Batch of 2 targets.
Target 1
Amino acid sequence: MSDCGFNNRFDKVSNFSDHSLIAQLEENIKAYLDHSFLCIGGYTNAVTGTLYNNNATSAQISTSIEPSGYRTKYWETTYKDWVHETGITYNSGSPISVSGITVNNIFLPSPTGSGSYGYSLDYPNGKITFDNPIPTTSKVSMEYSYKKCQVYKSSTCDWWGEFKNAIYSDLPNEYSINLPAIVIEPDIRNNMKPYQLGSRSFFYDQDMLIYIFANSAIERNNITDMIRSQKEITLNTYDINSVIADNAYPINFNGSVNNNGQSYLSLIQNYPGDDLFIKNVDIMALESYSKEIFWCILRLTTETIL
């Protein structure tokens, strides 16, 4: 007789490596926020030759890794989290799809370049890595769009623990994230109650904390109101385990676009997960750090039937 019979193993769990409820919530809330911000114009187009204040949205790509006269593989844009999503339209406009980069007036088509100028694109981190180092004096540019509000999962942010502790004291210079930004973090508050008689299904209430960081109180307040107005809506979700198994996730592990990846709307249609009900949204804190960083903490109480 097998030692893994029905009554001798975990219920509702089939694979040790699968993403469970909390991971599914974190993933789907991020995907929902990313998609929703883009649908209301939450992106900026950076076009070569366009002038911007302080080069804030310039398409010029720079490197600070090595001093002038050296060569490096690693280049980056001022703003990260490039828009990889397609099919987005707002006010008759759309985000720019990256068609390639220009190095010293030579156009190199994406996603891999050509010849001795091969490269890879890291969309979340806003970086280009060349196969071979090029002089730091090179002029590298690219037309692209970046997301106005960057959304992070706390589980994948190696900097989050130290950053969260530092906001109440002194923020070191190495904590340079583009603002506004959001970090999603699971909270310890949760609850389970039976769904119906004769069933092993439950209502799972799980609280998720939404940290909002901005350059101004107005920007922080606007994003806060956008999110808390989603109280009592039901979100369609996708099952991240099925998505990964089918190689349908839109971004590869190295930040490049997955040619087999699917859009957010396609994922929730083709790999449906459990519906996510936003039961309640509370403001826990409205703070500022030296009038330079303004932040808010929202508590989302989510409900899922499993």
Note: The radius of gyration is 22 Å.
Target 2
Amino acid sequence: MKARIQIGKKSSRGDAASRGATKLISLHKRARGRPTIPNLRATILKHAGELFAAHDFASVSIDQVALRCGVGKGSVYRQFGSKEALYASVVIDGFRHLRHEIGAALSGSSSIRERIDIVVRHALRFFWTRRQFFVLLRDPTAIPARLERSYRKERRELAKVLRAILTEGIKHGEVRADLDTRIVAESLLGMLRGVIRYCQDYTTPEKAAEAVVSVFLEGCAPKSAR
């Protein structure tokens, strides 16, 4: 009976030693690999954003993003899953910053025309090189549903900003009081999306902004016909 107890103790000590050796080997392997990068997700978003802003979607590869970040492409895939999801994450993150930029710019504006012009110009400049995003939104297999929900949330917030501008315009007699601001705000966002997707071959963000603001506030009819 004593012999069995002693054998059991030796076996237990052996298992502990084996686990310790395995842990040391694991630590050694990790030490030889790439060092951990703090805020890896934010780093990838930053460098991917720079690449997507400079090149169209098809021209940017995960390898290029990984090289910029100083990591293996497996690290990028582990964070985002696919190139499409990475691109969508970049756009949504930028959209969030865009709303804050618009808010800051609006603080120094007064007339309805100036405020609408600010929203239109900021939105067109931001999405002008990112129209592929709207193509991905139409493909339910391209990006995760959670990212689409994030985009919808940001878009709703921008619509709220437009509705607030329109409501203020109604108070000051700059906008017709019989209009539903929800419909009007969505109409402007729809105009912007159409211009971004289909008009880039023959115009610029600046010229497009002038046209959108003019049509939105004044209509297409000449002044003599109003």
Note: Confidence is low (pLDDT under 50) at residues 1-5, 24-32.
